[in-house]
Design a protein that fits this description.
The structure is a homodimer. The first copy, chain A, contains 11 helices and 11 strands. Chain A is an alpha/beta fold and about 325 residues long. The longest helix of chain A has 26 residues. Chains A and B meet through helix 8 and helix 9 of A and helix 8 and helix 9 of B.
Chain lengths: ~325, ~325
């Protein structure tokens, strides 16, 4: 089971991507196909050929953040993103990992792999660190305006992700709202609520923003606009807290000692909030496993994303989603 | 200039409310009218009559969180909330402060004071602590579904609040969105964007969740659903971080020292995030100044809210809003 890695994607490609792929080969014994400009990749490998887990597929074109994804993926058939998707489509790779343009990965995956039947729009998942492990939050940006039944599809996919990849049995699914009572919500969530009640998901009702972090919910469902605001709010707050603690600690020596422990803990948390840095963000709803990484991903982030991709493939995430949505949202999940 | 304080509102009323009012009398020389059950208030005053700044208006009925606000404010004419609003309407008080039912205060203010002409729906404001002071965030819960022009009205009211009460000249107003580019947004914000451009507000375009805390925006505009999710996400994240730092510090002695500084700093931040605890949440758009406090408000929170009410009254916030919206959103703000 090989994993295709877009060697040209990200701010520090191909250097950190190649490093991350090599780490995954070594640490997980994971076969990887590096997709990108062959010469550039060889240059990064720097003569290193100590692993037979590494293949290269030549794809010299690059899709940048500045071009229209829909146009670029049609025109640049030999781009690293499009070729990575093709490898998954052709069965050469079990999954793909890319730190390239998020729009490019989405467009290439939609065009190349297609949507899973019964899924209207794919969603991007973020695993938010919580006091009890992690909360699956979706959608975090693929769909700014949603229909109620799309939130139901997100809930089904998120629940399967929590179960199959994170090993949470009968995951608690909640609708992110402005209050816990079932009368709370906006038009969208009020309409989605009864639909979610009808599924056989472990739907626990509405939950509030604070429940993302306290471990009372496994899967939190929202539209991509709200999901993006939540992620950015979390990042911004963590950054602000780091600055504030730093200011406090400049006041005296004892406080300086405080910084020794507090600031690294806060920084670690902020890093984990940056979903793409932490195991990547799975794109759910397309016919294949695609893990999106942040453009600024480190080698470690790429390695973690490869691990996420492998876990999703090993646990047949796509097959499970396909089975669950084929019969509509009423089909039992978690059995 | 007297301020009416709902003595019966809040989890710890009338005790903490009376204490908070007394503190405001002493500290700010602010005349206060305590509105509520006279005997209960006297009991809390415990014979204390050291200030001539304190009056009592007898209003024995209480509106609880469990009753329908719209029904309760019509039926309980002698409730502390309704009587407080009446004092403002009759010009006996320049503003009111209540830690009672938020819905009750809103309903009573709407019924008793009416909306400012040109304002469709009142909004609740939260002042979020940021690296450069505070960010005015609105709406944080009064209106879950909004129309584009309502966001424009929120922007005008928020800008005036930042200018008149917080002393920020030509406040930077932004639309909370899922990206900074003007092409980002959901249906609502994409439609509000050009309307905001047409105003003479200092509209700086779209901003992201992280900009709430980094001091680059003075007034952040969103619908009440998103605003509520932002507030609760912030509260939840701050709480989770406190727990995580505590776990870290249990590891060794040096780390324990760290907690001495870090945890109080974090707790302080979380407290400030709880808008109602920190100076109260102004209800903007009604014909009078109403400051809503959290039900769990401390005496200090009540005192701070009285200060906020006084600043809003002194700076003629309502008159400014009235003038600004009467001529429609094009009227210059900040001049």
């Amino acid at each position: 089971m090989k994993i295709a890695v877009d060697a040209m994607g990200g701010d520090f490609a191909p250097g950190v991507v190649v490093s991350g792929a090599l780490e995954a080969c070594r640490e997980y014994k994971q076969p990887v196909i590096l997709v990108g400009d062959e010469a550039a990749i060889h240059n990064e490998l720097n003569g290193y050929s100590g692993t037979d887990l590494l293949e290269i597929v030549h794809a010299p074109e690059v899709i940048s953040n500045n071009e229209s994804p829909a146009v670029a993926v049609r025109r640049k058939k030999n781009s690293s993103i499009v070729r990575s998707v093709s490898l998954v489509k052709e069965g050469e790779a079990a999954a793909l990992v890319s730190a390239g343009s998020t729009g490019g990965v989405m467009a290439a995956a939609l065009l190349g792999l297609g949507r899973i039947k019964g899924i209207d729009r794919p969603a991007i998942v973020s695993i938010i660190p919580s006091l009890k492990g992690g909360t699956v939050l979706l959608d975090v940006g693929a769909n700014v305006d949603c229909k109620p039944y799309q939130l139901v599809q997100f809930a089904i996919m998120g629940s399967l992700y929590a179960e199959k990849v994170m090993g949470i049995s009968f995951p608690r699914v909640a609708l992110l709202s402005n209050g816990e009572e079932d009368t709370k919500g906006n038009e969208l969530t009020l309409a989605a609520y009864p639909l979610l009640k009808m599924t056989e998901l472990n739907f626990i009702g509405n939950a509030e923003g604070r429940d993302i972090f306290n471990g009372t919910v496994d899967v939190m469902v929202c539209d991509g606009f709200v999901g993006n605001v939540v992620l950015k709010t979390g990042e911004g707050l963590a950054s602000a807290l780091i600055e504030m603690v730093k200011e406090e600690v400049n006041k005296n020596m004892l406080a300086k000692l405080g910084a020794l422990i507090a600031v690294p803990a806060l920084k670690n948390f902020r890093r984990r909030l940056d979903y793409a840095e932490y195991g990547g963000a799975p794109l759910l709803g397309v016919n294949g496993i695609a893990i999106i990484c942040h453009g600024s991903s480190s080698a470690r982030a790429i390695k973690n994303a490869i691990r996420t991709a492998r876990e999703a493939a090993e646990n047949n995430l796509i097959g499970s989603i396909r089975d669950s949505v084929q019969d509509g949202p009423r089909r039992e999940v978690g059995s």
